[in-house]
Fold this protein.
Amino acid sequence: MKSVFLLFCFFISALQAQKFLVSVTDGSFVTISKNTSFFVEDLTITPSDTFIISDNLFRENNTELVQDVWNQCVDKTYTFSRSQKQFKGSIAFNYKHAELDSSDEGGMYIAMRDNSSSSWFFTSDSNQDFVENKILVNYTEDVILGQITLAYPNGPLIYPNPLLDVLNINFNAPSYKRLYNFNGVICFQTEDDTINLSDFSSGTYLLEIISKEKGQRWYKKIIKM
């Protein structure tokens, strides 16, 4: 794999607590060739097709991830001043143990959002390398690069939803799961982290998740296609 290393000038803004990493002025662009790695501090962007960054300031700041289902792991967010569309390829986020915000190292994800959106999203098939302290995600469908950080779920993560067959439940503690139909009748219960709904009728269900340790309860609406 080819690698591109850039030398950057860093500018510190005390008022905005941010560090400018790359400046691509209006009318200019940077081309990252297919399967070429673009290194910026602890972030590595490797497009599977030629990717162009244009009219942008790329910076590191401490934008807080504010969302009920997420907790931010590190006080660091990489931000494109103008969101970059149609990215396919891999993104790797390296971290240091000292940077983690009292988080369990396991169960972290790369969280991203479009600058115009208030919602962050994650990819369930994140790969974590505990030796190199790195989270790696391969995006096979187009995503928008706006803001990028590390996060872990505050409570269970359910995916995919809607779904056709298997429902995955990502939770870092033992739990009971109960699935209710539209009439409130329990139609399935398990302690497993996967539920096969391939034989269930299409419709809306309610999933109840109960923590064995603390008795906390979460409820998720599930749509079976």
Observations:
- Residues 94 and 132 are 8 Å apart (CA to CA).
- Confidence is low (pLDDT under 50) at residues 2-16.
- The two ends are 41 Å apart (CA to CA).
